[in-house]
Every structure is written in C-alpha cells, then in structure tokens.
TrEMBL record:
It comes from Tetraselmis chuii. It is a multi-pass membrane protein. Pfam families: Sec63. It comes from the Eukaryota. GO terms for biological process: spliceosome conformational change to release U4 (or U4atac) and U1 (or U11). InterPro entries: C2_domain_sf, Ig_E-set, Sec63-dom. PANTHER family: SEC63 DOMAIN-CONTAINING, U5 SMALL NUCLEAR RIBONUCLEOPROTEIN 200 KDA HELICASE. Residues 100-114 have a biased composition (Acidic residues). Residues 95-114 are annotated as: Disordered. Keywords: Chaperone, Endoplasmic reticulum, Membrane, Transmembrane, Transmembrane helix. This is SEC63 domain-containing protein.
Length: 114
C-alpha cells in the first residue's frame, strides 16, 4: 500500500524557518515532524517517516497491506519533535481486497511470454 501525504505550512514571510528555541539543547535544534500510519485498535505500526518541513512537502509512505480482507480503519499521526500541542491525527479507511498469490502472477507472466 502506498499513500501520499501533502503537507503545507501556514507561515508568513519568506526565507528559511528559524531553529527551535531550545536553550538547554546542546546545539542548534531544527524542527522535525514524524508521519506515522497505524491501526490503533490493534496496536499496529504500519509506516513511519521523519520529515523536515519548510513550506511544502509531498511524502510517500509505503507499507504491506493487512492480511485481513475488508475495510480497515487506519490513523495517520503527524507529530512534532520540538513543540507541544501541535500534533495532529487523521483517520482514514482502506478497503483491502484479495490479492493474487505469487504462483498465480508467475503463471500469468509465463503465458504472456509464450
């Protein structure tokens, strides 16, 4: 399964974002965001990716489809490693269909070549 997430920051002005105000951090701290896809009811983590977001970003998250056929509820978590209170959650549903087995795909490829 591949999902594509488009992110856009609502900021005024031009230029790069300033570093995070972190007076007790030993060096410069840049803001990072984590995109996490999971199934909270099952405690399943499907995909995770760190994003350094300036103004806009398009991120692809890939993960293996659950083995259970049917509708599955997922949650996309968008979490900041630098600021409290700005994390977001988005729920979405995927309808998982029965896939072909590898044997069936190989047989079809062999028939096309022959």
């Amino acid at each position: 399964v591949t999902i594509q997430v488009e992110l856009e920051r609502e900021i005024e002005g031009e230029g790069e974002l300033p570093s995070v105000h972190a007076p007790y951090y030993p060096g410069r701290k840049d803001e990072n965001w984590w995109l996490v896809v999971g199934i909270p009811k099952k405690g399943t983590l499907c995909a995770i990716k760190r994003v350094s977001l300036q103004r806009k970003a398009r991120v692809k998250l890939e993960f293996a489809a659950p083995s259970e056929v049917g509708k599955q509820d997922f949650t996309l978590f968008f979490m900041c490693d630098s600021y409290m209170g700005c994390d977001q959650e988005y729920e979405f549903e995927l309808d998982i269909k029965e896939g072909e087995s590898e044997d069936e795909s190989e047989e079809e490829e062999g028939m096309e070549e022959g």
